[in-house]
Amino acid sequence: MCLGVPGLVVECLEPAGELAFALVEFAGLRRRICTACVPDVRPGDYVIVHAGIALSRIDAEEAGRVFEYLRAMGELDDGEGVP
Q1: Exposure string (b/e) for 40-55, b if CB count within 10 Å is 16 or more?
Q2: What value does the mean pLDDT take over residues 16-34?
């Protein structure tokens, strides 16, 4: 089973060739993520990320529900940056 994890878009980066990228934060950790599948993403948006690719945008409420499920499963510490 594959798991897509919510992340907060912190900054949209300059495109690398034909692909768009953004800096996305996951519980305080920031990673460079491909945003080609969500070209209209902006800082402050939440995205579902799998294998370094943002697959879709979600609202903050939905991101919070996913974080609660992950906490309940013991897969998420109560770290900074998690709503």
Answers
A1: ebeeebbbbbeeebbe
A2: 93
